[in-house]
Amino acid sequence: MLQIKNFKKEYQGHLILDIPFLDIPEGVSWFQGVNGSGKSTFFKAISGIIPFEGAVLFDGHLDLHKSPVEFRRIINYSFAEPRFPDYLSGKDILDYYEKIYKTDSSEIEELVEVFGVATFYQTAIGTYSSGMLKKISLIAAMIGEAKILALDEPLTTIDKESQEKLLGILAKKVSQGVNILIASHHELPESSLIVNHHFKVENQTIRKQ
Predict the structure, then answer these.
(1) Which of 145, 178, 150, 176 is nearest to 76 (CA)?
(2) Which residues neighbour 206 within 8 Å (Cβ) at sequence distance 6 or greater?
(3) Which of 7, 8, 49, 118 is most enclosed, with most CB atoms within 10 A?
(4) pLDDT of residue 142
(5) What pLDDT does residue 107 have?
(6) In degrees rounded to 5, what are phi and psi of residue 90?
(7) Under 8 Å CB-to-CB from 144, ≥6 apart: which residues?
(8) What domain range is 123 assigned to?
């Protein structure tokens, strides 16, 4: 599914990640590592958000560097700590994603209902708690027809009930052929979402377990 070749990322001369080769198969992949190990950096890089050295290929032919616009259409990313302008509302954010991905509004309405954000998502983001903001970010990531969802610490800051709902939605996405990448320093709770592949993020690299 995803092939990572000669990947290297540095910040101001400090090496963050060096991955000679990594194959991420189809299905659900869990990337575990302590805070600061490079999980977020890796997810942002393969989602086309930050620059890096090396190559990221989808199915052996779609190259992120050579076809960045097309590549970004197949992968959606949810930040571990999402940030949006305080004056916008959650609805403004979701309306924007709806236009970008040209999706059916009924899809968003269903997610809004499931995550219980209808009571607040028309108010300014500056008034949100971290959990409220996280729910908007997760909904935004699931809009459209991405082939890969890269979710960075998706279970942090949201309540247990919302966690269970999220994992159920992701299990449904998998049944529809979507690949799920999860970065977390926690153990994932038991649910209908079955993790197929485990990766360890440590010592400035990523290895399959």
Answers:
(1) 150
(2) 4, 17, 19, 22, 31, 38, 42, 199, 200
(3) 7
(4) 93
(5) 85
(6) -60, -35
(7) 76, 97, 100, 101, 102, 103
(8) 2-208
Asked if residue 104 has pLDDT above 80, the reply is: no
pLDDT of 187 higher than 90: no
User: What CA–CA distance (Å, rounded) separates 84 from 164?
Assistant: 25
Burial class (CB in 10 A: 0-12, 13-18, 19+), 72: middle
Tokens of 182: 């999860």
Q: Tokens at residue 156, please?
A: 């942090």
Cα–Cα separations (whole angstroms), residue 85 to 38, 77, 93, 126? 26, 18, 10, 8
Position 71 scores a pLDDT of 97
- Residue 134 CB: number of other CB atoms within 10 A? 25
Residue ranges of alpha helices (H) inside the chain are 39-46, 68-72, 90-101, 105-115, 130-141, 160-175
Pairing type for strands 205-208 and 197-202 reads: antiparallel
Model confidence at 42, pLDDT cuts 50, 70, 90, reads very high
d(CA 200, CA 209): 7
Helix spans in 3-89 (H): 39-46, 68-72
Query: How many domains does the structure of the chain reveal?
Result: 1
The packing angle between helices 130-141 and 105-115, to 10°, is 150
pLDDT at residue 144, as a whole number: 87
